Amino acid sequence: MVLGLLLTGTLYAALSPAQAELRTQTDTELIKDGRELFLLGCSFCHGQNGEGVLTASGEQQLGPSLVGVGAAAVDFYVGTGRMPLQQPGQQSPRKAEAYTQDEIDALAAYVASLGPGPAVPNSSDYSTEGMSEEDKQLAQLRGGQFFLTNCTACHNFDGSGGAMPWGKKAYTLKGVDERHIYQAMLVGPGEMPVFSNDVITPEDKRDIIAYLKSLEESPNYGGFSLGGLGPVSEGMFAWIVGIGACVGFAVWIAAHTTRSSKSKGQVEA
Ligand code: HEC
Ligand code: HEC
């Protein structure tokens, strides 16, 4: 037994530091690769060391500092094709991503090395995979409540998106990756506020995502969807078309009865 203990002890001592070394080795390598990609594709706007670049006039930022934005911001911005920005404009739009996931991981590792920031979430953070059917439904219900209070003001009650002041847009949330929804809340792109884990806990974030995904799956039970414009406009539709028809009919009846009584009067006179 002593021999066995000794053996495992020595083996452990011999192997585990080597493993740790291997980890840091690959980490530094990933960061190095990321830095190379960064210098090529991003440093023009974000600076040689991610410190940000001012335009010649010194007022506007060509690209903001990336110190402390974290791996999650890179995974989101590059993963949704927002970065690299081709043309500084009003809003950085979604487009086809320019980098592979491996390259994005390297870029994210490099930016994360500049300063502490939110990490890329694990799939267990945003997925309801493996939950029982009841738990999933509960998560969707809870998520719906959180979505209604926090997100509908800009993204519409069914997540179909909406207009923002100054010609900007809050995009539709249909078809957005679970991971990117989670990260959008962590990062707060553009005009969207940051929903840190203190404001909306990771569990609540997961529930919001479950709700949004359930919207994508559920068919439209109400028949004609009116574009999912929301209770106010759908209510308006009922008022104008429904009650409008009733009022029109009433007017029609009234017009006919008055005319007949008038003509009766004329005959008597
Ligand atoms: C043409 C200039 C330009 C290039 C090139 C560019 N960026 Fe950006 N980047 C910007 C601007 C401007 C913003 C701020 C716009 C916004 O928030 O929508 C920004 C924002 C970001 C953010 C979000 C920062 C935050 O505060 O959350 C990240 C992360 C980012 N860029 C990463 C990158 C990476 C990685 C690359 C290279 C693959 C890159 N950018 C290339 C101009 C650029
Ligand atoms: C104040 C308005 C506002 C609120 C509130 C808001 N968002 Fe946003 N959201 C935006 C805007 C604007 C954008 C587009 C950002 C950009 O310029 O890239 C956006 C983008 C997103 C995206 C990225 C979509 C894409 O196509 O890549 C996701 C996901 C998202 N929001 C989810 C949420 C969730 C979930 C909530 C609630 C917890 C929320 N938002 C609350 C305004 C808002």
If you had to describe this structure to a student in words, what would you say it looks like?
The chain is mainly alpha-helical and 269 residues long. The protein folds into two domains: 22-119, Orthogonal Bundle (Cytochrome Bc1 Complex, Chain D, domain 2); 121-220, Orthogonal Bundle (Cytochrome Bc1 Complex, Chain D, domain 2), CATH 1.10.760. Helix content is 58%, strand content 3%. It contains ten helices and four strands. A two-stranded antiparallel sheet has the order 1-2. α8 packs across α9. The chain is flat and about 110 Å long. The termini are far apart.
CATH class label of the largest domain: Mainly Alpha
- Helicity range: 55-70%
Kindly report the spatial arrangement of strands forming the biggest sheet.
1-2
Series of secondary-structure elements, N-terminal to C-terminal: HHEEHHHHHEEHHH
CATH architecture of the largest domain: Orthogonal Bundle
* CATH structural fold name of the largest domain: Cytochrome Bc1 Complex, Chain D, domain 2
Ligand inventory: heme C
